[in-house]
Amino acid sequence: MSGPEQKLLEVDRLSVSFGRRENELRAVDALSFSIGAGEAVALVGESGCGKSTTAHAIMGLLPDGATRQGAVRFAGTELLGASRRTLQDIRGDKIGMIFQEPNSSLNPVYRVGDQIAEALRRHRSLSRRAARTRTLELLELVRLPHPSRQIDAYPHQLSGGQRQRAMIAMAICCQPKLLIADEPTTALDATIQAQIMELIDGLRRELSMALLLISHDLRLVARWTDRVVVMHHGEKLEDVAARELFETARHPYTLGLIAASVGLDRRLHYRKTTLAEVRTTREPQGGYAFAIHQPHRVADLPPASSETLLSVENLVAEYQTGSGTVRAVDDVSFTIKAGESLGLVGESGCGKSTLSKAIMRLIPSASGRIALRGRDITRLEGDELKRARRPMQMVFQDPYGSLNPRRSVGDILNATLVVNGVASGAERQQKIKAMLDQVGLLPSAIDRYPHEFSGGQRQRIGIARALIVEPEFVVCDEPVSALDVSIQAQILNLLVELKASLGLSYLFISHDLGVVQYISDRVMVMKDGVIIEEADHGTIWTSPRQAYTRELIAAVG
Amino acid sequence: MTFQSSSARPLSFPLPSLSFLRRRPASRSGSTWASFIRDPFVILGFAVVVPLIALAILAPVLFPGDPLSTVAPALIPPGGNAAFPLGTDTLGRNVAAGLAHGARISLSIGALAALFSVGLGLAVGATAGYFGGLADRILVRVTELFQTTPSFLLAVVIVTLGGPSVGVIVLAIGLGSFPIVARLVRAEFRSLKNADFVMAARSQGFGNWRIVREEILPNALPPVLTTASVLMASAILTESGLSFLGLGDPNLVSWGSMIGAGREMLQSAWYLTAIPGGMIALSILAVNLVGDGLNEALNPRLRNRG
Lengths: 557, 306
Prior knowledge:
CATH architecture of chain B: Orthogonal Bundle
Number of helices of chain A: 19
Helix content of chain B: over 70%
Strand content of chain B: under 5%
Distance between the termini of chain A: 43 Å
Largest interface: A-B, 32 and 24 residues
Number of helices of chain B: 12
Oligomer: heterodimer
Order of helices and strands of chain B: HHHHHHHHHHHH
Largest sheet of chain A: 6 strands, mixed
Shape of chain A: globular
CATH topology of chain B: MetI-like fold
Radius of gyration of chain B: 22 Å
Number of domains of chain B: 1
Structural class of chain A: alpha/beta
Shape of chain B: elongated
Strand content of chain A: 25-35%
């Protein structure tokens, strides 16, 4: 009945805003795009660009305070302002949705199978038995291991990837015409990520669904969709064919995102090049101007010296769970030379964060030895530990959780100096000002509170806190994982610049191989608490010895 | 908070500084406190609490002399004599003077008992939650001991043993209600001690005391302050109950003792029970309303995120 020109989903000049008059925040601004039957389209952009809000507007899931304008037509039906009843019939039946967090999108108190069966019974008036049979088929379809057993499992008994498979089974249970996937793999490890995207793509073809994939990851959308809509500040900047995204994109913002990303295949290294940064400036007329900025390479990056700064020998760290002792770090040994940058990669749960905390003496080690410049610090306590640890500092992953929300930036830095024995108030003030300048923050930041800053600025505060006591060695635990691509490039450039000017050594921990490739002189791969491979940055990416390393590289390649 | 200090003038105590609550940045705190003040129920709560405090403070000025002395013929009904607008009781004492002086006792015992439970609860909960291990196990057992004892019965026993002075009554009420605060604080500390910013402080060599005081406490306090208002309301009620049973300080008039004295005349002079009873109900309701408002203003989950 629908002509060939009729699209499955048409979004026509959609605008969504929150708040009233003076506080109005326009999340989506006159956005238009369409998806044909069976087509895969991506909405891509950095956090706050309005991509998730668009998905929620399509599903009728916007919060009550939101104002909507424009039109969203799904197979000829207008969805904006449709009755609750109409929306409920369409949601889950004609349009399925997958969310980012597989941990919280399944209800923890119900069995997985029952949650899928409930969605089926809501839309298909099946008997209990028929719903269960169909659920089992669905779990097989999404290739959940042991479906006949897992159907009665509770969400916490499944791994992240398995939960996401169950979530997909629920989303496709009624064979929807359109599947909306909002960052479906962002919370998952790279190897699982590839499997889940393969699954979604396979199901899409098998069930001839259209797909709206929402993501911040240019590589991901280029690989798995037909068309890419690039968004910034609620506006569509560009609508390009996915296959040629990296060749035909013209918009300076898209080009900037491509230039700023540190994909493994780009073979970038901090000793050879800086990362391009996207500069966004707001124009007086209200629009945005974009420019790509390539900072100058830091001239004097001394090679790593032969002097050993930190040595870790046969380190073991354990923690207790209900079912016994888990050995999170198992007989790990390595050294870091002064001026060196050592990368540590591994997937979630491999023990890399536990290792970093054990080195920092934040958690006890069961056995082994940690020595800083030859001095054993494994068993030091009290003031001795405080003095010995001062040359080691840490930058944390979460720029929101790692700063006390109730203290101003000046307070945070000041307390650090006080604790580390800088007695003179004037000296502290002067150090704080100098440090803020060095990490690229204005002096006015002193009196402001963490939440007044963006994620990237907060990470700069975290870096300032670590560096203000003039350490020699910094543990960076996933310092750019929570940041957008363009911000990630800025922070990585900053870390390189500071490394040169302050003569720092880094232990850089990340799950992102591209980031580790860029920042590391040497790389270690960790799996199940063990360092399985260690090699120079030149060789590990081209000739990995271990099968697991090859698997990791293949998953992102 | 100003009201606690002024209502308890004869028993003055240092006030915790609330400046850290206001140090929240202009954008958010402005709207938070503005919405707090705009909520009609909170305004209603303040509209009752503020005059009550004024009444308590001004009692010696409005009604000089001992409210327990006989000043007129017995049992003048309310409105029967312009000099005694709320009448007199069985012994010819001025009911209005009793109410005003009783407000001093009820509000100051309520505030002091709440403060005592918050102080004890903070100390116990913070120690148990932050250090964990053996200290945690011992303190949790002790807390449970107090929690499982009926708190009114506990108060009756303590006052009977210790004698009916304001200090003993505050202790008796506070011991019964500190477990609520201790458990709340323990839970907050247990989760906050693993927060990244506490990890960061530890990695930089901050001592335990500094971490507890500067990093964790300011983040754990808002729910405690909210609970304090509920504790204050229940302390007012417990004090009235004790006085009703004749366990209050015999030299002081309180709303509870007025009800206790008027109870035998319930048939003929019902107002001797109803007037102080109404005051108790009104003040508890008002303190609870203010507490609900505090909860909304301080709970980050209910707050508008900029």
